[in-house]
Amino acid sequence: GIPSLPANQTTKMLVEEAADVLKRANEALIKIITRIKTIAKSLPEYQVVRDMGGVGDTLAPRLIADIGDVRRFKSAKSLVAYAGIDTPPYQSGQFIGTRRHISKRGSSAIRKTGYEVMRSLKSHAEPKDNAVYQFILKKEAEGKPKKVANIAGLNKFLRIYYARVMAVYGC
User: What InterPro entries does the record point to (predicted)?
Assistant: First the structure.
C-alpha cells in the first residue's frame, strides 16, 4: 500500500515546514536564474548566441556558461573536441573505420545543453537562421538515426557558434 502519516498536529506542522522550505528554495532559485540572465545579457556575445536557431532566453546563458570564453580555443575543431562530439581516429594499416562513435572526452554539460538546443531547434518552426536545421533534415533524409543527425547538427552548430562569437570579439 501507499505509506501515510497519521493525521495529527505534528504531521501537519512537518508538512507545512517542508512546504515553506520548498518555497524558499524556489525563490532563491528564481533569484539566481535572474542574476545569471542579467550577467549573460551584459556579455558581448549574448545577442549573437540568442539569435541562433534553437537558443532562447534560458538556453543562451547556459550555453555561454558551459562553453566559457570561446577565445581560449584555437579553432572551431578544438571547441568541438572540448564538447566531446568529435570522432576519434580509427585506422590500422589498410583498414579505415567509418562507423565511429563520439569521443565523449570533453564537457558533458556542453553535450547536454547542446542536445537541448537541437531538440528545441527541431520542435519549433524553421528559424530564420536555418543552416543547422536544414543540415539535420538532410542527415535524417540520408537515413541517419535522429540522435546521430542531432549530434552532427550540434557539431555544425558549435562551428558556427565559434565563428560568430570570434567575429564579435574581432579575432
Answer: Transpos_IS110, Transposase_20
How many angstroms separate the Cα of 147 from the Cα of each of 133, 139, 143, 154? 14, 10, 12, 10
Q: What is the DSSP letter of 39?
A: H
Question: What gap in Å lies between CA 28 and CA 22, rounded to an integer?
Answer: 10
The SS3 call for residue 87 is: coil
Which domain range does residue 104 map to?
A: 45-169
Three-state secondary structure call for residue 92: strand
* DSSP annotation of 14: H
C-alpha cell at 24: 524558499
- Selection from 63, 40, 48 nearest residue 120 by Cα: 63
* 106 Cβ contact partners less than 8 Å away, ≥ 6 residues apart: 81, 82, 83, 84, 85
Cell 556579455 belongs to 43
Assess whether 37 and 54 both reside in one domain.
no
Shared-domain flag, residues 73 and 106:
yes
Q: In this structure, are 124 and 162 located in the same domain? A: yes
Sign of CA dihedral 126, 132, 136, 141: positive
Query: Position 135: which residue type?
Result: F
Lowest mean pLDDT among 71-85, 92-106, 110-124, 136-150: 92-106
> What's the predicted TM-score (pTM) here?
0.80
